[in-house]
Amino acid sequence: MSSDSAAVVFHHDKDVASRCRLCDTEGRLTFEHTPPRRCFNGHGVTLSSLESEVRGLRRGEQFQRGLGRLALCEKCNRKTAVWYGDAFASWTQQGFEVLSRAKGIWIESAAFLIKPSRVIKQASLLMIAQSHPQMHRNNWYRDLCTKLLSPTASGRPHDFRVLLYMLRSRARMSGMAGSISTRTGNSTVVYAEVALPPFGYCFMPDETATEALVTEFRMADITRFFDFGLDQASNEFLNFPILTPDGIAPLHYRDGTSQ
Fold first, then answer.
1. What does pTM read for this prediction?
2. Domain limits of the chain?
3. I need a labelling partner for 185 at 20 to 30 A (CA). Which of 40, 122, 166, 213 fits?
């Protein structure tokens, strides 16, 4: 949030739990590239996160072969890559092209030809990869996982919204966190934030406070992408800011709002 906010990050213990974050089965976990490797995520990345702060890594955590976590079982990793990976890679490539032409800190009517359902389901897997295994106790999380495991299912998950911005640098990943305004006392829960050029994604509850964030940061709300059919293509014209993540807490950006 803006500079008059404090952030509290609820990060799970480094328990190397062996439950798949998606299907909730016990077993060997595979490394989930976040985003997928084909989305230009196969090279060295420096990540700002709570874990890197706890470990005393002032310059961030180093990933030599792309950003990611041990999060999904082999079966879930393989089939979701087949279902959603190519469409998400195309979306990411188009994002880099839009960003390369952008001037200033605001992008107006950027044109994308995409399959929205596949895009947003893969984007949601980015959040799943940051989640604690016990998140399956929550109704909204189970509803989301059910939709991700049913590629043809459409319709928005319960109590879940996805907000989008663009960024040029400074990768950041955060699990569930709370942001409290020291000026107003208002609090906002963030399920996760995943930021790696060209896109930053904020996953949040569907609550009134989210509307204030859309107004403050002018992020694009792409939750409606869940309403599309699996192979339904769409020409999308989106408006969003270019932001620079500042620190490890979600919703904090350089200069309070943008780069």
1. 0.81
2. 5-256
3. 166
